[in-house]
Design goal:
Layout: H1 3-21, E1 39-41, H2 48-59, E2 64-66, E3 87-89, H3 95-105, E4 109-114, E5 117-122, H4 123-127, E6 136-137, E7 140-145, H5 147-159, E8 177-181, E9 184-185, H6 186-197, E10 201-205, E11 216-222, E12 227-233
Parallel strand pairs: 2-5, 2-10
Antiparallel strand pairs: 1-3, 4-5, 6-9, 7-8, 10-11, 11-12
Amino acid sequence: MSRKVWLSLAVVVLLSSAALAGPPSPLDRPVTWIGPEPVVQLPIEDTTVPDLFLLIGRASHVPLGIEPSQHPLPPPPYEDPAAPPTEVRFDDMTVRQAFDTLVKLDPRYGWRDLDGVAVLRPVRAWADPHHFLNRSIGTIKYDRTSPEDMLGRLVAWLYGEPPRRDALGVSQSGDSFPLEVKEGPILMALVATAKADGDMYWRIGYGTGPGRTRLAFTLEFRGLDRRWGIEVGRPHIPPPWNGTTSGAGGRP
């Protein structure tokens, strides 16, 4: 076989491999930074990592999911306590490398690439089979759905009842999309929703209700100029996860 034929075959193989690989992941783009310098001052604060995860992901147009920890920030694990570092720089990093760096700063968190959606959660939440986002649901398939509809379905999955319509944010852009998710955890339905839009994120928030301590569940989807949100005040997060124990089913 001639050298020319061999070269032609090599080119075909390379082009076929590139086509099968598909477009590059947004996580492998260079970090887009909002601010004067791509630097984080140390020591970090309690919300530094989830806040920066959101900031970097939104600026870099990466679909996201974020769940905060309810445990206090542990002391920084400096290799040399006598000469602790004062900053961490994100120069020349990809988004993936930046996220890896963030979770090293705060051992409460771990992040995963779930089908192109970057999800930050407490390490305990990832490992807890009783966590409400790890609760299994059947296969879902919708010809057209919207962020508002998915928020309503989420509440129904968790509490067995739909939310009040006035609790749902209203889409001003008429966004809708097809959605199909195989049987699995609620988490993957949220991931699929964020990915369907391509530039959206979901977030969970915990807080206290008026009059007595209670957990509240907040979920938001937000595009560049669109926002949907719902707050579901309940005496507790859906059982069996109630945030009161430190073992399985305890706080993330």
